[in-house]
Amino acid sequence: MSKAQGEGAMMRMRGVVAGAVCLLGLAGPLVEPAKAQSTMRAFSSEAELKAFLKRAHRAEQRVYAAVPPPPPPPVAMAAPAMESPSASRSPDAPSITNNQTQGVDEGGIVKTHGSHLVVLRRGRLFTIDTAHAGMKPVDTIDAFPPSDSGGRGAWYDEMLITGDLVVVIGFNYARAGTEINRFRISDAGKLTYVDTHHLRSNDYYSSRNYASRLIGTRLVIYTPHDVYPGEEDYAGSLPALRRWSEKGPEAGFEILANPRRIYVAEMLRRAKRPNIEAIHAVTSCDLAAVRLSCSSTAVLGSDSRNFYVSGDAVYVWTGEIFQTRWDRDDDLRAMAYRIPLDGKAPQAVGVVGAPTDQFSFLENDGVLNVLVRADGGGEAMWQAEVRQGELALLRLPLARFGDGSRMAAKSLYQPLPGGNDFYNLQNRFVG
Fold this sequence. Notes:
4 helices
């Protein structure tokens, strides 16, 4: 990029930030109720949820009806030389677990149990005895159910340990859902298969974030569920769980979040053009229970998302919360959700900009700190690698969360230097 191009890009980014500040000033009167509530409202019935999704779909159709036809195809030219596969290959995933929050373990591929290392590699679990400064192989077992034929269509990339339970998390493309596989590990490092549960979801993969967390014996999983407002039957998009044993799948799916456990921010509930593309579900399971017991809380929003887990809540940040015309990209309003892990109703507040990844968040002393940039598309797949716009630190008191009818005050944003790099930004809170 030339110097002139770089300066032009920076001017555009500053314009985006300025537009965001203007939006903060304008959004309040449009959405402020007479009195905001302390939590979000769930849908009262299946009929109310369907009616809301139908209205969102009509708004989407009106917006896309204004899209102009595509231009005629250009004159054919000789194809450029194909890029070497090694040049576009994404960086390797990290091989160790980075626990962001004390007391909140994250899914990894190497864990410890007593004097044993437990390693998840290529769909298999391995135990290694490290006693007496040695490295002695002990046991190995498939990371998938015995009834499966080689775990086809599945990627197993997260592991957690609590007590004598080893839990392997993976996404199964063949079944379109998240797998939760439980194993027993003995003091001698021997592994035994226990059971498998299939959690219905879309692909949760992120190049930076793990889907699972462990707090004590409580497994916490974030999963997205695409929702298509035009479809009459949305039941297939709801979080649901099915148990597997050594013999295969048992009865049908158990719905974990009915409409009374699905929430929407008041700003979106009242909007003429809400952008509803996904159900964002947080599922909590008691791993110590003989029969896995799970429940889910879900919020509606766009499919652009980041999530972060503190000691007592999951935060989900969704961008592009309103439908916009094809030629308008200056509406940077987003929504931050706080979903308590104790089962209480979630809260929300309108925000601006986009975090880079989970490390952009820190909850401390009653304040949620978030490093945001002017623009971004969430952390799904490799989206976290690409961001643009200037930086700001949002210091959001938890007391500002409510029913999602209000925007966070612009005085809560502190502009920061930097922001020139739009690729592969790394950020951490220290101390």
